[in-house]
Amino acid sequence: MKLFTLDKILKFIIGELIGRFIAFAVALWCSKLFTHYSYEKKSIKNLFGLAKRKKIVVNEMPEWVQILTIAVIGFIVMETINYILELPKVRNAINIGVDRFLIFIKIKKNIENEKSDLDINSNS
């Protein structure tokens, strides 16, 4: 039995991409929760409202707490997704999808080989 096959590599990559993408999206969402924007108040800096008002980033908690919270929530989501992907029903669905993709690639290669064989025969 081969250690690395195209089938195993595709299944691994699909599982990792799904888990990491969802964890990344959740981490971005969490960082959006902790930060909001405000406009500076009228003061001498902006000529009491005559100049353009600047957008100011307001953090509701310290940056290190945000980073720690985002990392923990992202890790929990990634592990949850990886657990869900290991469930038998989901694993079978992924296997069927990868098998169909591999069959499609093999059929496509066979068609290309037949076309090249026909081109060689017609030129001779």
Describe this structure in words.
- The protein is mainly alpha-helical and 124 residues long.
- The protein has one domain (6-36, 62-123).
- The protein is 71% helix and 8% strand.
- The chain is built from three helices and two strands; from the N terminus they run αββαα.
- It has a two-stranded antiparallel sheet.
- Helix 1 (6-34) packs antiparallel against helix 2 (63-85) and helix 1 crosses helix 3 (88-123).
- The longest helix has 36 residues, at 88-123.
- The radius of gyration is 27 Å and the shape is elongated.
Any descriptors?
71% helix, two-stranded antiparallel sheet, 124 residues, 3 helices, mainly alpha
Biggest sheet record? 2 strands, antiparallel
Distance between the termini: 42 Å
Q: Based on helices, strands and strand pairing, what is the structural class?
A: mainly alpha
Shape: elongated
Evaluate the radius of gyration.
27 Å
How many DSSP H or I helices? 3
Q: Please provide the ordered H/E string of secondary-structure elements.
A: HEEHH
Question: Numbering strands along the chain, what is their spatial order in the largest sheet?
Answer: 1-2
What number of domains?
Answer: 1
Mean pLDDT: 76
Give the proportion of residues in helices. Answer: over 70%
State the assembly state of the protein chains: single chain
Strand composition percent: 5-15%
What's the total number of strands?
2
- Poorly predicted spans: none
Sum this structure up briefly:
By secondary structure, this protein is mainly α. The protein is built from 3 helices and 2 strands; from the N terminus they run αββαα.
